[in-house]
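Agenda item 2: coenzyme A complex prediction
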Amino acid sequence: MSAGNPVEIDLYVWSLDVDESERLRLARLLSHDETARAERLVFERDRHRFIVARGRLREILARVTKREPEALRFSYAAHGKPSLEGCAEKFNLTHSQSTAALGITRAHEIGVDVECVRPLKEDIAGRFFSPAEVAALRALPADLQTEAFFRCWTRKEAVVKAIGDGLSHPLDSFDVSLASDEVAAVQRIDGDSPDRWRLATFKPASGYTGAIACRTGGREIKITMKSLPQLPWPD
Ligand SMILES: CC(C)(COP(=O)(O)OP(=O)(O)OC[C@H]1O[C@@H](n2cnc3c(N)ncnc32)[C@H](O)[C@@H]1OP(=O)(O)O)[C@@H](O)C(=O)NCCC(=O)NCCS
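Presented output:
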């Protein structure tokens, strides 16, 4: 089923490592609770990256909703998923090391995840993936498995972030495709129909992989890569 116009998703990607003057400018956009969260982070690099992630999130959402970045108010669902008070737009932010991404839709729940592709020391797939995903992963040639692991992990995390439960949602309660020659798709999901979901994989930066999940009810998705707001701030 894919009736209706595609669900439009705007995708923004940015680096969290910026010069000091840019970071200080972004820090001024944060609310008191965001500044307090940044201050609780032990490592300076994490503090700086959190400020740049949240500052840019505010700038982008302000442009989309035609508000001032400092005036935006977030509320948080039971498992911590933020939403914008008084706005129809749905968004989801992700950050991994120096890279952040943000997906925005008009009205559909969305989840986004980015990971730095790196060698794995433990059998994380065996602990968290469904039996079908573990079998599909292990059937691949060894040199393709790391990439496929992160393709699968980001798709699964994007699904649980779209649902809003995060990692408290059982990761073995649904299956996603993971091979590079398969269409990105939810193949099974307990208590729901896989046809209602759309998945996509994207490459945010060299060495990273990302995924977007959206419960569109069956409509296709159309992803548009957007550029960051330019300074000076547009009227
Ligand atoms: C959400 C979660 C999956 C994020 O995993 P991660 O790979 O470390 O982080 P990502 O960079 O992909 O995403 C983090 C961003 O997702 C958003 N987010 C937070 N909780 C979320 C949730 N439950 N669902 C969707 N998005 C969420 C936030 O914007 C967050 O960034 P910020 O806090 O810096 O603004 C993980 O932290 C989790 O499972 N949290 C839920 C824990 C929980 O159940 N807590 C209950 C008490 S609040």
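Discussion summary: The first strand starts at residue 7 and ends at 15.
Owner for follow-up: CH.
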